[in-house]
Amino acid sequence: MAERQDGGARATTPQTTTPQATTPHEADLDIAAAIEQGRTALGIELGSTRIKACLVGPDNVPLASGSHDWENQLVDGVWTYSLEAVWTGLQEAVAALLADVEARYGVRPTTVGALGVSAMMHGYLAFDEAGELLVPFRTWRNTSTERAARELTELLGHNIPLRWSVAHLYQAVLDDEPHVARVRHLTTLAGYVHRRLTGRHVLGVGDASGMFPVDVATAGYDRAMLAAFDERAAGRVPPLADLLPAVLPAGADAGTLTPEGAALLDPSGTLRPGIPLCPPEGDAGTGMVATNSVAPRTGNVSAGTSIFAMVVLERPLERVHEEIDLVTTPAGDLVAMVHCNNGASELAAWADLFGQLAAALGQPADPETVFEAFLRSALDGDADGGGLLAYNYLSGEPITGLEAGRPLFTRTPDSRLTLANFARTQVYSAFGTLSLGMRVLEREEVGLDAMFAHGGMFRTEGVAQRLLAAALGAPVAVGRTAGEGGAWGIAVLAAYRAAAAGADVPDLGTWLAAEVFASAELDVVEPDPADVAGYAAFLERYDAGLAVERAAVGALAPRETTARTTTQES
Q1: Angle (nearest 5°) at CA 160 between 171 and 141
Q2: What is the pLDDT of residues 148-202, one digit of tens each?
Q3: Which stretches of sequence are listed as region Disordered (predicted)?
Q4: What is the rounded CA–CA span in Å between residue 280 and residue 183?
C-alpha cells in the first residue's frame, strides 16, 4: 500500500535528489526538449507512508521524482488520514518533482503528455450529495468489518475481505451508523483524488475490483452480485451501482485536468490544465505494471507496510477461499491476491532502534545505511533463524484470524540469539503470513512461470530476494526499477493512455513487453536448498506460535486511543 524506500527514515519535508552542477550534455538537452514539449508522463502514488511523484520520458525511464512522507493515525480505534493531509502531501510531492526537474535539466515543466494517480486500495470514503466526507477515511488497515465480510461472502459466493469498500459500507449498515442514509458516492483514495482533479467519478478496473467484485467478462461490477447486495440492504442505502465509480480499463479516457484540479495539484500555477488522465488505479495494479506481471502465469510480490502477492490466473479458482482475494489487472484479467496487512514495518522499526544505539555510542549513521547493514546481516544467520520467533503484526491479520496485532519477539532458552539470526527472523516474519496464504494457491495448482518482487526491501541487493525465494520455493526476479514503486507504475499507465489516444495500440501486456521491458535487466535468484529447508522449519514454528500472538492481543491493550505510525513501504 506503496512507497517507502529509505529503510525507516522520518523525513518531514519534501524529498528531491539534486545532482551536482555539470555541463549540459546532448542527451540532457534532448530530455529538456521532451520536457518542454510535454513528451513525458507523470505518475503520483499515495502510499501508506509516502506520497511520490515520478516523471518519465518518452522511453518510460524515470527522469525525476519528488516525495513527501506522511503518517496514518489511529483515532478512536480507526486507522485514518485527513483529507487536508492528502492535499498538503500531494502539493509538496509535486513541488519537489518540479524542482528536481529544473535542477537536473534546467527547465520547469508546464505540462505533460498524460497524468495518472494511484493509491492504497480498498477502505471507505463515503460522501454526501454535496461531496462532503461523511466520516473520516477508513483505510485498508482497519479490520472491524468481520461480520459484514462474513455475511457478504456467504451471500455473494465470493470472498469479500475485511478491508474491501463494500464490507465497510455493509458494516456501517449493520451498525446503524447515522451517516449511512446520506451516502451518495463511494470511492477509494485514488478515485477521490482523481475526481477532484477531473470532476469524473471513475476508477480503473483493478482498483474497482477491490471495492466490489468485478465480472471479468464484462469488465464491470458483477450485476448479479449487485442485485443480491441491493436486496439485502434495501431501504438502507441507494442501489450500489449508483454509489460506486464507473469502471474503466487501462488506456481509457478518464478525463482531463481541470483548472480547479490544476490549482489543487500545483498552487504555484506552473502546471497548466488540460492534461489527459489515465484511469486511477490501486497500488496492487501499479505493482503489476512495475514488474511486468499482467499476463497469465506471471506474478509479483510487493513488500511495504503491507505485503501481498498477485498471481494472474489462467482460469477461475475451484472454490472460494477466505485467504485469497479475487481482483483484476489494470486491463481486467483475473488475479489471485494474497494480501497481508503487515509487511516491512517492523524491520524499519528495529533498524531505527539500532540507529539510535549507534548514535548513543557516538557513531551516528543515516537511516538507509543502518537499514542496509541490518538487512545484510540476515545472510549470516542460521538457515532456520536460530530458533528465534517474531511476529510483525502492528495491526490485525485476517489470514491468521487476528483482529488486532501486537509486534512480538520471543525465543526459547536454547535458541541462538545473534544479530544475524535476529535479522533473518525479522525478514522471515515479513514473509510468514504470505507463505501461509500461498499454500492455498499451491493446492489449487495455480500455474506460475515467473515471480517478480519490488519495494524498498529489495533495494538491498541479494538479501530479501534470496530469502523470499526460500519462502516461496520458487525463483524470484528483481529489476532495476524494483525500488521505484507504484509511482513509476502509474506513470507507465499514463504513458499507455497517451499512446492509446494517438493510434491503435496493442493490449497492455504486449505494449509493456515491447515498449517498457524489452531491454529490462533482471536479476533472478533461484531458491537455495538449505534456505528452503531452514525457512520450512521457521514456518512450522511460526504457525505453531500463533497461539502466543493471540494471547498477546488478548492480554496487552493499546496504551492510547490516538497513535501515529511511520513505516517502510514498497
Answers
A1: 65
A2: 999 999 999 999 999 999 999 999 999 999 999 999 999 999 999 999 999 999 9
A3: 1-25
A4: 22
